[in-house]
Amino acid sequence: MRLIALLLLVTPGIIAVIGIKLIRDAIFNVFHPVFLHIAVQGIFGVLCVVGGVAFIGGFILHRDRKRNLTKGRFKKK
């Protein structure tokens, strides 16, 4: 069970790191031919970073809610 949880957290983390690399490449004008334009590459990188961080944050929040570790602010009503 812990291995599955580890894989669930590592995969979005890797996607977020790839997104950071795509943003950096777009800023320094390194074009990857998979994307049509360098702006598309930068936007895709931002989406990867936001999606990866949001998934990891949601996973941690769900786990903390389940274990009753959140204070009153994040509890479901």
Automatic annotation (TrEMBL):
The keyword Transmembrane helix applies. The chain crosses the membrane at residues 40-61. InterPro entries: Uncharacterised_YqzF. Keywords: Membrane, Transmembrane, Transmembrane helix. This is DUF2627 domain-containing protein. It comes from Halobacillus campisalis.
